[in-house]
Design goal:
The complex is a heterodimer.
Chain A lengths: L2 H23 L29 H5 L15 H4 L3 E2 L2 E2 L4 H13 L5 E4 L2 H4 L23 H7 L9 E5 L4 H15 L7 E4 L4 H7 L6 H18 L3 E2 L1 E4 L1 H5 L4 H21 L4 H4 L3 E7 L3 H21 L6 H4 L3 E5 L11 H15 L4 E3 L12 H16 L14 H23 L3 H6 L2 H18 L28 H16 L2 H16 L5 H9 L4 H12 L10
Chain B lengths: L5 E5 L8 H12 L3 E4 L6 H10 L4 E6 L4 H14 L6 E6 L3 H10 L3 E3 L5 H16 L1
Helix pairs in contact in B: 1-5, 2-3
Classes of the chains: A alpha/beta, B alpha/beta.
Chain lengths: ~550, ~130
């Protein structure tokens, strides 16, 4: 036995003795001591829990492989995270005003929420759009609406994140056309499309086409952007919605990374060199309330992505290895009861995201369990980020929890659990096959139900909901409401557009799109052609519905 | 057969948020009810047809997209047109308190907001169905 081993053995027996003493003599509260995801955690972590940790191999330095500690060499001393509040409601005029309000109050990037008809590829005058126009995001039917949405906002000065999936190509094409009108070339545009269809089938459920044509549209966007919109993040590989649907932290991590690697494989299969598109893939995670579990999740995510991109997919460009991500605090952690408590929850979650090294952050507003956020609530949410950034001192030091026995052990455990899920998914035949078999959907539904049970049995306390209840509480909070006049105004603009455009040009552009969809051409230039002549989103997606068909999910619950 | 409560859990409109609907469906099943889950993206017509075909006692709509003031009245009207008056219409989701009041005036039986206990939902359904069956 070497001296070091002897010392290790001594420490091990000392810890064992301590553990026995505690469990035999100390009284324990009657409570659940697991993470919010239901993972067992120990009472104490010691060097023994990370005995195998190799600093160079497993952690390294910030800005260097495997990026566990962060993707930038000086992290927040170089640049703070982008404070990006997701916003969009009503008409394009309404959202334009909200965006200008946020920019005036120190927000540094835009993030556009679209209404459900836009997300599902229906124009505002479609029968399925009734009651939904402008309600949970802004309504966009044609380039005209997009021009209004970005009126007075120079596209070469802001970066814009668009939360759009199935019709992502159409919205990007419109954005390119707005740039053209402002004199900004597509090469100068910066922003992000969510464009992550796999997580739609898994969790968020706003799909249009079946998986195969969806993957084709996505690879078309990746190829087109590599050449024409090089600063654009083509996919935001999203765990957010997976978590909101009820997954555990580990499931969020594993399913998101599996989706990400599926896109990488699709890009390679489409004939692209991995380094031409991988640097433009970004990620989007949830930050929930279990502080250390979240920080470990972010750190593990970076390490797994870097390792597999280099070792498995052969990426040579370091920019392909580093995982940049946006974070949003957990909407599902907020409560309708005692809504002011949500400010505190959001602050904790925002802090976890910053400790985890996020590149941008959305903090939820306290009233979001009841309606779209009001201006006052959004204001507090943005201020919460500014307090973290400028008052807490946290951004001074990179990865401040690195080296914590607990956080390192959790990070390792996250990675192991993630790799076990990868094996299961592979055995099922890959991500798309696993979706078709309902694997992810069942795993998530089971986790959601387990959590709900624990809350109802009061194994988990939610302050204000199942304990510390304010009897007779009346929730008085100013809510933002979208009236039916939004739908009327939107329909009017749409009919004005339709009566003033060149119908022959529209028909020709749509015919071009159809032919391209039936063949193998990249669809992006055809979308741009259609948008330029004011073809509507519903018309473009309508053509593709006819060519590609629509996806139907088998209705399963656990 | 007469004892067993049949519930249609439905997701109207374009909203894809199905966590609540699935949790409630699982909980009602565990509470001994027969549950039919429609799946996503249902029109009011599809929901009412399913309710009649499946001969359910309860229609429970889950709406988190803000379209509740369109969807609930539409389902109520279609049920009325179909001549059914023995089906309890209930639901939940992200619905502000004053909208809930208005919907209840229109004939929705009871609505559940975020943080509701599924055992309470099951108990309520038993009572409401017993009242309808008389």
């Amino acid at each position: 036995m070497t001296d070091a081993e002897k010392m290790g053995a001594t420490a091990k027996s000392a810890r064992k003795a301590w553990g026995e003493k505690v469990s035999s003599s100390a009284r324990q509260r009657d409570a659940l001591f697991t993470s919010i995801s239901g993972e067992e955690v120990d009472l104490l972590y010691t060097p023994e829990d990370i005995a195998e940790l190799d600093y160079e191999r497993d952690l390294g330095f910030p800005g260097e492989f495997p990026y566990t500690r962060g993707v930038r060499s000086n992290m927040y001393r170089g640049r703070l995270w982008t404070m990006r509040q997701f916003s969009g409601f009503g008409t394009p005029e309404d959202s334009n005003r909200r965006n200008k309000f946020l920019l005036d109050h120190g927000q540094t990037g835009l993030s556009v929420a679209f209404d459900l008809p836009t997300i599902m590829g229906y124009d505002s005058d479609h029968e399925r759009a009734e009651g939904e126009v402008g309600v949970c995001g802004v309504a966009i039917d044609s380039l005209r609406d997009m021009e209004t949405l970005f009126d007075g906002i120079p596209l070469d000065k802001v970066s814009t994140s668009m939360t759009i999936n199935a019709p992502a190509a159409v919205l990007l094409a419109m954005y390119i056309c707005v740039g053209e009108k402002q004199g900004v070339p597509s090469e100068a545009l910066r922003g992000t499309l969510q464009n992550d269809l796999l997580k739609e089938y898994i969790a968020q459920k706003t799909w249009i086409f079946p998986p195969k044509p969806s993957m084709r549209i996505i690879t078309d966007i990746m190829t087109y952007c590599a050449e024409h919109v090089p600063q654009w993040n083509t996919i935001s590989i999203s765990g957010y919605h997976i978590r909101e649907a009820g997954s555990t932290a580990l499931q969020e991590l594993a399913f998101t990374l599996a989706d990400g690697f599926a896109y990488v494989e699709a890009g390679i299969a489409a004939g692209m060199d991995v380094d031409t598109f991988a640097p433009r893939l970004s990620h989007f995670f949830n930050s929930h309330l279990d502080f250390f579990e979240e920080v470990a999740k972010f750190r593990a995510a970076r390490r797994i992505w870097a390792t597999d991109m280099r070792e498995k997919y052969g990426a040579k460009d370091p920019r392909s290895w580093l995982m940049r991500f946006h974070t949003q605090t957990a909407g599902c952690s907020l409560t309708a009861q005692q809504p002011f408590n949500n400010v505190v929850r959001t602050a904790l979650e925002g802090l976890a995201a910053v400790m985890g090294g996020t590149q941008s952050l959305h903090t939820n507003s306290m009233d979001e369990t009841l309606a779209l956020p009001s201006e006052g609530a959004v204001h507090v949410a943005l201020r919460t980020q500014q307090v973290i950034a400028f008052e807490s001192g946290v951004p001074n030091v990179i990865d401040p929890l690195g080296g914590s026995y607990y956080v390192e052990a959790l990070t390792n455990k996250m990675e192991e659990g993630c790799r076990e899920y990868f094996d299961q998914i592979e055995k099922l035949g890959g991500v798309i096959a696993a979706i078709e078999k309902g694997f992810f959907q069942r795993e998530i539904a089971r986790a959601a139900f387990t959590y709900q049970r624990e809350v109802e049995e009061k194994k988990r306390i939610i302050v204000g909901v199942n304990d510390y209840i304010d009897e007779g509480e009346e929730i008085k909070i100013d809510l933002l409401k979208i009236g039916p006049e939004v739908e009327q105004r939107q329909k009017k603009v749409l009919s004005d557009v339709k009566s003033s455009r060149d119908d022959t040009a529209v028909a020709a552009a749509l015919a071009g799109l159809r032919a391209a969809a039936e063949g193998t051409d990249n669809l992006m230039p055809y979308f741009v052609d259609c948008c330029r002549v004011y073809a509507t989103e519903g018309e473009m997606i309508g053509v593709l519905r006819e060519v590609f068909g629509e996806y139907r999910e088998p209705p399963i619950y656990w | 057969m007469a004892d067993r409560i049949r519930v249609l859990v439905a997701k109207p409109g374009l909203d894809g948020h199905d966590r609540g609907a699935k949790v409630v469906a699982s909980a009602l099943r565990d509470a001994g009810m027969e549950v039919v889950y429609t799946g996503l993206h249902q029109t009011p017509e599809m929901i009412v047809n399913a309710a009649i075909q499946e001969d359910v006692d309860v229609v429970a709509l889950s709406i988190l997209s803000g379209a509740h003031m369109t969807m609930f009245p539409r389902v109520l009207k279609l049920l009325e047109e179909a001549g059914t008056d023995d089906i309890v219409v209930t639901g939940g989701g992200v619905i502000p308190a004053d909208d809930m009041e208005e919907l209840i005036k229109m004939g929705v039986d009871r609505l559940f907001g975020p943080g509701s206990d599924t055992r309470e939902i099951a108990a309520y359904m038993r009572e409401a169905v017993a009242a309808k069956r008389g």
